[in-house]
Amino acid sequence: MTPDAPSADPQADPNQEAPAPACVMTFNASDPSGAGGLAGDVATIAAMGAHALPVVTSIVLRDTAEVFDHSAIDADVVVEQARSILEDVSIAAWKVGFLGSAEGVSAVAEVLSDYPEVPLVAYMPNLSWLEEDDQQAYLDAFRELVLPQTEVLVGSHQTLTDFLLPEWSSERPASPRELAVAAAQHGTRFVLVTSVPLPDQFMDNVLASPQGAITGEKFERFEVSFVGAGDTLSSALAALLAAGSELHAAVGESLAFLDQALDAGFRPGMGNVIPDRFFWALPPGEEGEEGEAAAAANDEEAPKDPRHVH
After folding, report:
1. What is the CA radius of gyration of the chain?
2. What is the pTM of this model?
3. CA 218, CA 196: separation in Å to the nearest integer?
4. What does the angle CA 167 – CA 172 – CA 178 come to, to the nearest 5 degrees?
5. pLDDT (tens place) for every residue of the chain, 310 residues total
6. CA–CA gap between residue 223 and residue 250 (Å, rounded)
7. First to last CA, the chain
8. How wide is the angle at C-alpha 42 spanned by C-alphas 160 and 83, nearest 5°?
9. How far apart are CA 96 and CA 150, in angstroms?
10. Eight-state DSSP code of residue 64
């Protein structure tokens, strides 16, 4: 036994298993880039100390720059995936991402409805790459079937405005509270709105209810575009809620996690930058490396564009 090893507890049962981490079931598409979808969900949920139960809803064809096509998984197969593991494992939170089709939305909503006590974090990605008819059918189904069961709806300011307030015509951007009011009309309790435009070099991220803004965090604009940020934020939030965190604290911790993951992001291909969800596990650099990196960053300083939360 090393000097640092804890002394044995004479009362401990050597056959007793350690408690399992909180489990989060996530419904999302496969993403071969590893940026978002189930790959992003699993990595984020693990990084937050929870265990992911991933259910595939669609096969997405994409690279790190754009989505080319997708093939939705049969709705019955989606349900069978979920119910098979739900008969075995107790879950503490849901995360919903892209569900593939209107039929997939209906199937997932049916599963969710059997567990009304489990908090649901729903992420609405930018679906402009879908055919117009398919996109409209998907959004209509999501609005009718998923929003009434949603604790927190997560999405970028522009995406949520298009989704919740499609008739918005004012030159003034919709406020997070106005988006929350629109979401509440469909039964959603809170919205977490990202990339809210602010003056100067900042973007706001705001948790809001119909009564007003509750909490949030400003991000400085970055000179690169990211992919996978929205899945990262929503999965982190679901994992924290699963572990028993109070909503306000969970939102703050999720935003802090996302900010650090974006700061440590990397570009694996020729497209966008991917968040590094395991930034905290990186070994410290050799002495002098940090200073050299900072100097290089200063040399390359340029006007910054918004972080795009996809």
Report:
1. 20
2. 0.87
3. 9
4. 60
5. 333 444 445 565 667 888 999 999 999 999 999 999 999 999 999 999 999 999 999 999 999 999 999 999 999 999 999 999 999 999 999 999 999 999 999 999 999 999 999 999 999 999 999 999 999 999 999 999 999 999 999 999 999 999 999 999 888 999 999 999 999 999 999 999 999 988 888 899 999 999 999 999 998 887 788 999 999 999 999 999 999 999 999 999 999 999 999 999 999 999 999 999 999 997 766 434 443 333 344 443 333 333 334 4
6. 28
7. 49
8. 90
9. 9
10. S
CA nearest to 235, candidates 212, 211, 207, 254: 254
How far apart are the C-alpha atoms of 113 and 285, rounded to whole Å?
A: 48
**CATH architecture for residues 23-264:** 3-Layer(aba) Sandwich (3.40)
The sign of the dihedral angle between the CA atoms of 100, 105, 109, 110 is negative
Matching residue, tokens 């575009």? 225
